[in-house]
Amino acid sequence: MALLTPDPTGTTPRPGGEHVARVRGHHRSFGDVHVLRDIDLDVRHGEIVALLGRSGCGKSTLLRSLAHLDPAPAGEIEVNGRTGVAFQEPRLLNWRTVHQNVALALLNGPERKQRFALAEQTLAEVGLAEKLDAWPLQLSGGQAQRVSLARALVSNPSLLLLDEPFSALDALTRIEMHQLVIELWRRHSMAILLVTHDVDEALALADRLVVMDGGRIGRTWEITLPRSDRVPSQPDIARTRAEVLVALGVKPTPPNPRRDPVTGELGPSNHQPAKRGAA
Ligand SMILES: Nc1ncnc2c1ncn2[C@@H]1O[C@H](COP(=O)(O)OP(=O)(O)OP(=O)(O)O)[C@@H](O)[C@H]1O
């Protein structure tokens, strides 16, 4: 049975229940290939869940089901309220301005003036108030991804779905985007489901980490520390990081003793090669 609750009109009130999304027994095949098997997943109101897994394990397929982008979902998929989606590529319309790109996400919603006012407000939230009239091709990769975030947020979703939205960005821009996501999450009281390959990104952003393996949900870690305390609690984070990597099939890294370049012996060395001509 497919139980879908899309909200194209944007009129569904915020639900009082515990879960913003609830998936039960979801499976998905493409021809003979079973990509998702018997998936159960809950996303609670206001939490950030990171979905990790090796390439091809079915993360994007699950996210597409939650975003109502899959025409053939199987099992029970219930989403309370609106969803917004941002993908790895910004997917902007190059023949529309930044302002128009964001306003278009509200096409089935309020009247034109309000659509553009909401788009302007959301673009200001992502730091692009000055770029309303810019064309997508005039933007940097980070700016384009901010527009994509604004487009996902403008309808005030209760569940923001992010499919590796920062993986193509440079490291510094990625850190800025993480800070932006946390700011937006605080302001918009929404839940976020983040698909990522990056364990450190997941640890930096998520309240809960879910690992997928072979089309199934595997282990889950609750990050119980308040977000503000997360940075000082490095031992907990390091342990979870190591466990997640093992769950992803990455062998634990052995200690990395330095091999003395001259003697070949293992262990830290302050050996300085002798200067030419020294006695
Ligand atoms: N429309 C489709 N038709 C046929 N096969 C598909 C389709 N969409 C996805 N698949 C297959 O389903 C599997 C899972 O794809 P999916 O994109 O969900 O994986 P993923 O975990 O998100 O991978 P990545 O991390 O590399 O993005 C892959 O083998 C993919 O080839």
Automatic annotation (TrEMBL):
InterPro entries: AAA+_ATPase (IPR003593), ABC_transporter-like_ATP-bd (IPR003439), ABC_transporter-like_CS (IPR017871), ABC_transporter_ATP-bind (IPR050166), P-loop_NTPase (IPR027417). SUPFAM superfamilies: P-loop containing nucleoside triphosphate hydrolases. The keyword Transport applies. Pfam families: ABC_tran (PF00005). One of its GO terms (molecular function) is ATP binding. Residues 1-15 have a biased composition (Low complexity). Residues 1-20, 249-279 are annotated as: Disordered. Keywords: ATP-binding, Cell membrane, Membrane, Nucleotide-binding, Translocase, Transport. This is ATP-binding cassette domain-containing protein. It comes from Nocardioides marmotae. The lineage of its organism: Bacteria, Bacillati, Actinomycetota, Actinomycetes, Propionibacteriales.
